[in-house]
Amino acid sequence: MNPVKVGLLGLGTVGGGTATVLKDNADEIARRAGRGIVLDMAAALDLERAVELGLGDVRLTTDAWEVVKDPDIEIVVELIGGYSPARELVLQAIDNGKHVVTANKALIALHGNEIFQRAQERGVMVAFEAAVAGGIPIIKAVREGLAANKIQWVAGIINGTANYILTEMRDKGRPFDEVLAEAQALGYAEADPTFDIEGVDAAHKLTILASIAFGIPLQFDKVNTEGITGITTEDVAYAGELGYRIKHLGVARRTDGGIEMRVHPTLIPERRLIANVDGVMNAVLVQGDAVGPTLYYGAGAGALPTASAVVADIVDVTRTLTSDPENRVPHLAFQPDALADTRILPMAETQTGFYLRMRAKDQPGVLAEITRILGDRQISIEAFVQKEPAAGEAEVDIILLTQVVREGAMNEAIAAIERLDVVSGQVTRIRVETLN
Predict the structure, then answer these.
(1) 183-218: b or e for each residue (b if 16 or more CB lie within 10 Å)?
(2) What does pTM read for this prediction?
(3) CA distance 370 to 45
(4) Crossing angle, helix 26-33 and helix 303-319, to 10 degrees?
(5) Ranges of CATH 3.30.70.260 domains, the chain
(6) Residue of 133, 132, 98 whose CA lies nearest to 115
(7) Is 434 helix (H, G, I), strand (E, B) or coil?
(8) What is the pLDDT of residue 85?
(9) At 202, which helix (H) or strand (E)?
(10) 348-432 belongs to which CATH class?
């Protein structure tokens, strides 16, 4: 049987890793796939990169459209990233009857519904395991391994840059700006780190996880997204005193009123396994009704870990090249005509516990005023700490942990607390998840 010919778009970090894995593990891959898989053609702006990778037998071009249109290419691997021209190239490849493998979470989160519909019409596959959590096979696990379950919730540390920053702030007491600069110097964060530290990257990934977990269309615009720029070393330390760690978490949960989709800093009890995932590592916790909780941990980025997921997708596509398109695993886990138009909850209707930190005057009756505001809205306090004032200061930090409450009620309470004469500045609010 003739080998399957692959066309690669992009020879950057992941593209180079994919080319390396395909070359170095060619025999093992062929044994798994049932036939050979060869990198036949690659497109890159800098063709010197191909020389560095030792791709002497690969046809090279600086024009990605040549790969998409080449009649010999059966699988197009899109690793250039971004929204455009990635979308146009993928759609053209599909229209040309080619299967597609991509690691592009932004593309899938924003344009996946269109891409999957076009692929279904043309009878081709689009595989995207590497789009979420790098080398962790979380897409396959939720879509196939947990197919017997009604997924109740998914919670994940799915951005390594944010996790690295929070880990350094906790372990070494270093301020956010200093750790971010180091992350950029080490290559963990981009020169423009906005997508990582403001939660956009994690929201792309959560969009995909929620879709395959609950059988809903991809809806990136409905993910409530909050970054980590407001987290201070004081918050990290206070959380530790209370037995919690702060993680940047993506949460998708099924409720009676609809589905929650949110990305934000979160206090997690330090005894939870996921609370102990540090550095640039990723982890996803999935709760199914039959299996219970399952945890998936590993490298969420990097050349070879992400290439591992890309090549696994290429193998999957190769195995099904001759199968009836109607009998393939659906792109979003559920049959296309079975996707549900389930309501996505607005943030005000979600329910979590809260960590509150405020600066207040050191005088009698202050805590009573604050607890009255919370009590009027049926918000119960689980724990509180009032720090000793520093020498010569008339204000102290007050830290409260609340029980689970509707976010809208908490917003009202915070606004009322901030209006008190005895409270200065804004109240810091971080959500709490016990992940029971």
Answers:
(1) beeeebbeeebebbbbbbbbbbbbbbbbbbbbbbeb
(2) 0.96
(3) 60
(4) 30
(5) 348-432
(6) 98
(7) coil
(8) 97
(9) helix 200-214
(10) alpha beta
- For residue 354, give every residue at least 6 positions away whose Cβ sits within 8 Å of its Cβ, in sequence order, or none: 400, 401, 402, 405, 410, 429, 430, 431, 432
31: tokens are: 């044994």
Q: Which residues contact 306 (CB under 8 A, 6 or more apart)?
A: 13, 14, 17, 103, 130, 134, 135
Residue 150: partners with Cβ closer than 8 Å, 6 or more residues away:
254, 288, 289, 290
Output the CA–CA distances (angstroms, integers) from residue 156 to 5, 99, 175, 186, in the order listed: 35, 29, 24, 24
Q: 244 forms bridges with which residues in the sheet?
A: 269
> Residues with catalytic annotation?
205
Tokens of 182: 């180091």
Query: What residues does CATH 3.40.50.720 cover in the chain?
Result: 4-134+303-338
pLDDT at 243 over 80: yes
Query: Is the Cα torsion angle 184, 264, 143, 273 positive or negative in sign?
Result: positive
Right CATH for 138-299 from 2.40.110.10, 3.40.50.360, 3.30.70.890, 3.30.360.10? 3.30.360.10
Q: What percent of the chain has pLDDT over 90?
A: 92
**Amino acid, res. 237:** A
Fold (topology level) of 4-134+303-338? Rossmann fold (3.40.50)
Handedness of CA 163, 245, 375, 363 (dihedral sign): negative
Query: pLDDT, tens digit, for every residue of 346-399?
Result: 999 999 999 999 999 999 999 999 999 999 999 999 999 988 887 778 899 999
**Residues of each domain in the chain carrying CATH 3.30.360.10:** 138-299
CB-based contact 76:125 (threshold 8 Å): no
Residue 240, classed as helix, strand or coil, is helix
